[in-house]
Amino acid sequence: MATFSVTLPSGEIWTPKFVSKLNQDNCIGCARCVKVCANNVLALAGMTEDGDLIVVDPENDDDDDEYERKVMTIGTQANCIGCQACSKVCPKKCYTHEPAEV
Questions:
Q1: Which of 47, 75, 86, 96 fits a disulfide with 33 by CB distance 3.0 to 4.6 angstroms?
Q2: Angle at the Cα of 52 (from 71 to 19), degrees rounded to 5?
Q3: Is 67 in contact with 46 (CB distance < 8 Å)?
């Protein structure tokens, strides 16, 4: 299969890489990535002792006692435009990006 690529005005071929995985074991829940993503791809969640995820509103987080730690999740992967801004700001390098196959 071929990958999705774009020819830029300069004639250069650019192959966007879309978010495919997020390593929640390394994630510290800092939410830097969700702040730079303009397309609502990511979501902040609280992880319970049992590994269950609870969606957290980063603006109004009053449920600290319901979970052990915060982690990022890929909420709406289809919204990703391949800019990789999330991985550029991630201090723990939690993201994996891959080209889309067409």
A1: 86
A2: 45
A3: yes
Is 46 buried (19+), middle (13-18) or exposed (0-12) by CB count in 10 A? Answer: buried
Structure tokens, 98: 């891959």
Rounded to whole angstroms, the Cα distance separating 99 from 43 reads 22
- Residue 73's φ and ψ, nearest 5 degrees, are -130, 160
Give the contacts of 35 (CB within 8 A, at least 6 positions apart): 58, 89
Tell me the pairing of strands 17-22 and 42-47.
unpaired
Contact call for residues 16 and 4 (beta carbons, < 8 A): yes
Distances (CA, A) of 88 to 28, 56, 58, 81, 94: 15, 23, 20, 14, 10
pTM (2 decimals)? Answer: 0.81
